[in-house]
Design a protein that fits this description.
The chain is an all-beta fold. Helices cover 2% and strands 56% of the residues. A 12-stranded antiparallel barrel has the order 1-2-3-5-6-7-8-9-10-11-12-13.
């Protein structure tokens, strides 16, 4: 559950899992159950096309560690290294720290909330938001009888009032609908992540659809490894970009 530069990376990709769900766990943890929190590490690259010949690239390295009773909490750290749409040289982006708390979970449903803080740490103005940004979200995960997962979430993203001169304030609401169908094969997985986003500062809205195609690679570094491909398209006259494509590698549960 990602907005390009300011679109939140919602529950879809950010929350990785192990141990909080009372049902028997699958042998391979692919990270699609947002209520199961696990140690994970990954690296990914995202290309974003803004239209009119403008684009940027973003490398991200991330690390997640669970803690608390039954591993019902987790902290995630993300280090971005990006290029700008005009200056294509790379530099440090805005570092972020995310907290996840699974409040309740059983065989049929799970409830959780997240808090993500992004710091104004970019090397150049075009590589970050120019302010400290807080993202708060809550989601309800429903585990269907056929093994599929539906997890709608509500996300609020806003700046903390310390924006640099000339930078726009951030105040956005996202409704995200996350769906993971149960496939007949364990050689891949798919997650669909449609979202509706409203920008309160511009009084404009738009929509996005992110689809994740994941391919488990087997055991590596003591955990379950995978590669993934994540295309995203955006719709609406006021969308901040046209499309993006992300590819990555991660290890879960080491």
């Amino acid at each position: 559950m990602k907005h390009l530069l300011s679109i939140p990376a919602t529950v879809c990709a950010a929350i990785l899992a192990t141990g909080a769900w009372p049902q028997s766990q699958p042998e391979v943890n692919n990270g699609t159950n947002p209520t199961i929190l696990a140690t994970s590490a990954g690296i990914q690259y995202k290309y974003t096309d803004f239209g009119s010949g403008f684009s940027n690239g973003l490398f991200e390295a991330s690390f997640t560690v669970p803690f608390g009773r039954g591993n019902n909490k987790a902290l995630s750290f993300t280090l971005p290294y990006a290029s700008g749409p005009i200056d294509d040289s790379f530099g440090l982006g805005d570092l972020s720290l995310k907290f996840v708390h699974v409040l309740a979970v059983n065989a049929s449903r799970g409830i959780a909330y997240t808090a993500k803080l992004s710091f104004d740490s970019a090397d150049r103005p075009d590589l970050g938001s120019g302010q400290t940004v807080l993202e708060l979200s809550g989601f309800y995960a429903k585990f269907l009888k056929d093994g599929s997962i539906v997890a709608p979430s509500l996300v609020q993203t806003f700046g903390l009032g310390d924006e640099n001169a000339g930078r726009s304030k951030i105040n956005m609401t996202t409704f995200d609908f996350y769906y993971v169908p149960k496939l007949a094969t364990d050689k891949m997985f798919i997650a669909f992540d449609p979202a509706l986003i409203y920008d309160w500062e511009r009084d404009k809205g738009y929509a996005s659809l992110t689809t994740t195609f994941g391919f488990p690679l087997g055991k590596a570094f003591g955990g379950d490894s995978q590669i993934f491909i994540k295309p995203q398209i955006l719709a609406g006259a006021y969308r901040p970009a046209d499309w993006s494509l992300q590819v990555g590698y991660k290890v879960i549960g080491f």
